[in-house]
Amino acid sequence: MAEKRKGRMERTEEYPFDFERYIEERLREIEDLDERRFAKKVLLDGLGKMVRCMEERYERLEGRLAREVVLEESQYGIAMTVIRREHYDPTNQTLYPVDERDLDPERLARELSDENHSYLFTVFLEADDETQRIFEAGKSPGSGWQSQERRLHISRARRYREAVEGLYQVFQDNSIPWETVNTAYLDKFYDVYVEAPGTEAEEKSGKEPEKIWFGEFEERIRYGFLPLWNLEQFFFDGTDFMLPCMDGIYYEHEFLLNEKEEGDGYLIQSNEDILEIRHEEGKIILKSEKETFEDWKVLHIIGKEPLQSLDYDYPLLTNRRKDSFLRRRYGDSRNGLLTRAELFRRIMELDIQEFIEVQGYEISKEGEAYPAGEGMDWFEEEGLFPLDSRKILVLKFREIRPGHYLNSSMVRYAISRIQREVGEYRCVGVLV
What we know:
The model is unreliable at about 1-15 and about 140-150 (pLDDT under 50). The N and C termini lie far apart (about 60 Å). α2 (about 20-25) runs antiparallel to α3 (about 35-65). With about 425 residues, the chain is α+β, with helices and mostly antiparallel strands. The longest helix has about 35 residues, at about 35-65. Helix content is about 30%, strand content about 25%.
């Protein structure tokens, strides 16, 4: 009975058209036999072959779309922590440096120095967002270098922000939905430069400085730190697994996932040779004009819980949502009516429970009272309607760990996530 219903449904949804029968019927209407014979040759042998060819292509396209898979969000969750450089565990296959150059201070010094500034080292400022703003205003570094008539230049470590921007672009190239990455740690790294290049700077690179005093921030400065995340990068070559594309002009290369770790996510970084990236069950299809290729980059996101090696003491921050019955029941639909309970549910599904919890909200029209700050999706376009023209949704949070330096950053992360889902308001967050 089920098969019978299925057959009726298919007949209802599809209307097959017998092109050849239709032509034969129309040909009968031609009385002149010679003209009918000529028309049949033109229509069936010429146009008929074109129609059959197009039908075959559409069937292949339909089959390809049917094989495409819906990817699990957990496969592409990003986790992050910070450690001291000397504590890095190369055998830990779940956490890798955000920038591999952090393991080679001399190389970092060469590549970050220019004719005007020499890179000295990178510091991690263990402070909240407000203290960071004061630090960035330039009121901190003391007189250690001034006695030698050399001035310091301190700026937020741009290379980590570029890593997140690059990751976002790879997600777009692979047609994978982007979820805001928690950059609370990355935003607290600062590169320290000294004006005028010199060998002294290169020699001191990566070493704890002896002649720099950061004034009131000295107790919050951490030397020799680097960020880690659950993302591994590697290259692969291909001479096999080539399939001709539909039009016979391009090649389709397969990156097979059957033998990969279940639950992990794989992304291919686009380049000028890759024309299309398509995810299917058990493989990623890469369309290219190249018959063979070398050094195409793969981003491997480890899906399982990262291992905490010895002295990996800092909290692990992730952008994964907490599993719950309500989430399984209602999913991540953003089109339904946004009630207070639904809003709070979305917030508390975020990985922020160790630091803050939502307490309430209010709608405000006083934009000047809540100036816009930088979110964690700074690289995305604002959208069709500017945020400044919208009403303000003020979300109020309570500190679970009062005074912790990450609390304000976790508010900023939560606001960045919710802003992607609540387009009719400009979202801001406050600690109460």
